[in-house]
Amino acid sequence: MNSSYSYIRKNIRLECSHKVYFTKESFSTKNDTLAEILQPHREGIKTKALVFVDEGIIDGNPNLLEHIASYFRSRDDRINLVCSPQFIQGGEPAKNDWSLVEKIWELLNRYSMCRHSYVIVIGGGAALDLVGFAASTAHRGVRLVRFPTTTLSQGDGGVGVKNGVNYFGKKNWIGTFSVPEAVVNDFNFLLGLPHSQKRAGYVEAIKVALIRDRSFFEFIEENAENLSSFNENLLEQVIKKSAALHLDHIASSGDPFEKGSARPLDFGHWVAHKLEQISDFKIGHGEAVAIGLAVDLTYSALVGLVKAKTTERILCLLEALGFPLYHDLLNEISANGNRVILEGLEEFREHLGGELTITLIQGIGEGIEVHAMDRKIILDAVRDLNNRHISLRNA
Ligand SMILES: NC(=O)c1ccc[n+]([C@@H]2O[C@H](COP(=O)([O-])OP(=O)(O)OC[C@H]3O[C@@H](n4cnc5c(N)ncnc54)[C@H](O)[C@@H]3O)[C@@H](O)[C@H]2O)c1
Ligand SMILES: [Zn+2]
Q: Are 245 and 207 in contact (CB under 8 A)?
């Protein structure tokens, strides 16, 4: 899946080439995908590569290091793997520890990695965000090849242009926009994921379908039962389409680096980011986005933006796929007596810059931007979701 797009900023046209590959067994010596990406910048020299591996993926892929070693050995006439793969912590803690950024920089410096060298990162979205940030700031940008290993990162974040770490207790407060050299989605990495994480990719697929593609939503709906039992073929189709829609949005929106205030792909995310933060990241991103979508959809029905039966249809799909749509933290009260979740709105505006812009929908496949949300009606939506949760529990 290759996408080229141009971007005009202050009368300068920038051309971006964005490559996303889908493959299996990417470190089998017979698979040329990575080797073809790692082109030297001029004839006759070896390409330098440094690999980072999310330590969380090793249990499910016990032979990975061996495969990486034999892959690079079989191509050592033209690629110089500067050291054995380096483990990095996986999950949100990776983004909460600034010293990890410095450790990555230290390795890049130790092995004299330059802008023509390649940093390869294999892992979940958090590991990609961390290593991507360090690579994009070293020498103002060392080439990055991402291997996302979760459904969420293969279908959403991993194919995007953002990197970042958390700071001041806020998500992605420090970060960069930079187009990766390539993204390799190897479906075999998904096989060992726990169910909760396999499910997480579905929510970003539903989100992007809701704002852009009604027929994709219907496809997920028709196949909900098999998707809920993680049918491999269907899961791969959903991730592939989700990645394509995310990439297409970046390429066609005219604002790949989010200079404006609109962030359609962040539908449901203002609540999600706040929930992740106040739960100390115990609520995962996918789980939080499902609740965020439920709040925004219930709100949209209450203000008459979308039909109540459309909201109901979407909430039923999320539930059929196994997502809880309420969490007690939605009702958490801050020290000054306010509902903590509402602070998420202001933090979202600040993160975007400029005017508050929230994407909601007016129908399936029809995103719409609003610039204000009524706080009392948001709380009514939370109350309705709490009641729904109680009746489901008692049913
Ligand atoms: N850059 C972006 O545009 C963007 C977009 C969406 C989300 N994100 C970020 O991505 C992060 C969430 O990423 P995620 O959902 O991929 O999970 P994650 O990176 O938080 O990983 C969760 C856990 O799964 C483990 N893991 C990863 N791959 C595995 C595999 N194949 N088998 C077994 N375990 C595995 C990790 O080690 C970790 O313990 C959040 O920090 C979110 O903010 C970034
Ligand atoms: Zn997301």
A: no
What rounded mean pLDDT belongs to the chain?
91
Q: What is the CATH number of the domain that holds 150?
A: 3.40.50.1970
Answer yes or no: is the C-beta of 52 below 6 A from any ligand 1 atom: no
Determine which of 208-212, 330-334, 351-355, 389-393 has the lowest per-residue pLDDT on average: 351-355
183 lines ligand 1 (CB under 6 A): no
Which of these, 363, 144, 353, lies nearest to 263 by C-alpha position?
A: 353
Hey, whose CA ends up nearest to atom 20 of ligand 1? 91
Pocket test for ligand 1, best of 285, 289, 348, 351 (most atoms within 8 A of CB): 285
Domain extent at residue 331? 195-394
**Which residue has the CA at smallest separation from atom 23 of ligand 1?**
91
- Pocket flag, ligand 1, residue 58 (CB < 6 Å): no
State the pairing for strand pair 86-88/47-54. Answer: parallel
DSSP H helical segments within the chain, as ranges?
A: 33-37, 64-73, 98-110, 125-137, 151-155, 195-212, 214-222, 224-228, 232-252, 269-278, 285-302, 308-320, 340-352, 375-394
Starting from the CA of residue 129, give the closest ligand.
Answer: 1
Task: Please give the model's pTM, rounded to 2 decimal places.
Answer: 0.90
Nearest-angstrom CA–CA distance, 196 and 189: 15
Cβ(95) – ligand 1 distance below 6 Å: yes
28 and 128 in a single domain? The answer is yes
Q: Which residues of 74-86 are buried (b: 16+ CB within 10 A; e: fewer)?
A: ebeeebbbbeebe
173 lines ligand 1 (CB under 6 A): no
Q: How far is the centre of ligand 1, averaged over its atoms, from the C-alpha of 393 (Å)?
A: 29
CATH number for 309? 1.20.1090.10
Angle in degrees, 0-180, between the axes of helices 340-352 and 269-278, rounded to the nearest 10: 120
Residue 3 has pLDDT above 70, yes or no: no
160 with 205, same domain: the answer is no
For 134-160, what is the mean pLDDT? 94
Number of domains in the chain: 2
User: 17 pLDDT exceeds 90?
Assistant: no
